Amino acid sequence: QVQLVESGGGSVQAGGSLRLSCATTEFVFSHYSMAWFRQVQGKEREAVAGRDSLGKLNYADSVKGRFTISQDNGKNTLYLEMNRLKPEDTALYYCAADPSYMSGLAPAPLWNYWGQGTQVSVSS
């Protein structure tokens, strides 16, 4: 069973920063495509940034230049560093993984494994 454990959400003011973490097993971390999504109630889950199984990174246009994916190989953890946060970044953020080779921005229905979500709230 694939487990993805997210942490790091919280409440910040606009312009602030947060770092989300997604911890998993060594096998998943090393061989799966992984991505970050976010969802606002009543809207579809949207891709934010991701890493395909070969390590290529992709970012949604809305977060380019502000969000960065990083990773700690020793901890089997994928991070989403979020800087210059805006109120419109407020959402429930999810980590996703899949054994297929997929772009980090592949749509949500294609991903088979999900974390529990972590809330990010940005106030103006």
How would you classify the helix and strand content by structural class?
A: mainly beta
Helix-strand pattern, N to C?
EEEHEEEEEEEE
Integer-rounded radius of gyration: 13 Å
Oligomerization: single chain
Structure summary, number of beta strands: 11
- How many helices in DSSP terms? 1
Which spans have pLDDT < 50 for at least 5 consecutive residues? Answer: none
Helix proportion of residues, in percent? under 10%
Kindly report the average pLDDT value. 97
Largest sheet: 7 strands, mixed
The separation of the N and C termini measures 40 Å
Describe this structure in words.
With 124 residues, the chain is mostly beta strands. It contains 1 helix and 11 strands. Strand 4 and strand 5 form a beta hairpin. It is globular and about 40 Å long.
Structure keywords:
124 residues; mainly beta; seven-stranded mixed β-sheet; four-stranded antiparallel β-sheet; 1 helix; 11 strands; 5% helix; 46% strand; globular
List the helices and strands and how they pair.
Blueprint: E1 5-7, E2 10-13, E3 18-23, H1 26-31, E4 33-39, E5 46-51, E6 57-59, E7 67-72, E8 77-82, E9 91-98, E10 113-114, E11 118-123
Parallel strand pairs: 2-11
Antiparallel strand pairs: 1-3, 3-8, 4-5, 4-9, 5-6, 7-8, 9-10, 9-11
